Target: Phosphatidylglycerol--prolipoprotein diacylglyceryl transferase
Amino acid sequence: MILLEIPWNVNPIIVKLGSFELRWYGILFASGFLLGYQIMVNVFKKEGKPEKDLDVLLFVMIVATVIGARFGHYFFYEFDSFLKNPGTFLLEMITPPYQGLASHGALVGIVTALLLYARSHKDQPFLWVADRIVITVALAGFFIRSGNLMNHEIVGKESNLPWAFRFNNFTLNPDGSLRMTPEAITRHPAQLYEALSCLVLFGLLFYLWNKFKEKTPRGLLLGIFLIWVFGLRFCYEFLKENQETFEDQMALNMGQILSIPAVLLGIGILIYTFTKGKNIENV
Model:
């Protein structure tokens, strides 16, 4: 029997108590940080860095990721609305639920935070800490995109491939419960494509770090991460529905436009790594 579609009937809400909802997305989002923290504990132990610094690094990463991703969403996708009522949007950026997270904004937030972190931790230069953090970010990407899959969001375009998913539309019943109505069409499981790509990248980056450890060429893992994640993001966008209606009039959507400089930056970092970077210890 040939599989013609995969009905995706997972309820995004695990449990609902009054106005409180525990969602798969929240569990998966938090899991990325928790497992990432354990990976960094292993890294710091093997490279002789003070483990007490990890609490600061974890806090920096959480704040930078959430604020950067929220700001990026409003700046890149809802800029006109943001200008009309900046006070409301600024409040929404820092208060849950965090609906609308832009990975390109998260990248800017994380890079900024790591630059500040490295300035106050002289034994952990920017490229050193960035090379190791991207291992955990790749794993977090797997969990976040899996969360998008659980939420039936960031869906792909219509597809008749054997592994196409039939997602659901959601409406609220009068009693507050969720009613799921299957879509009429099947789609590319774009969230799954990106999740699996991030998982493979995590395995590659962890393998390279485990092989070289403190001898890992500065910038190698960061450069690979940027090219892999945003190069594939550029390609996957051709298989995804646009997130905002204004993108329908664009030759390339916002995700693709923002991915181009990230890929170019990754290429530049790798060129630096294999020329000057190997001989510089404090960058």
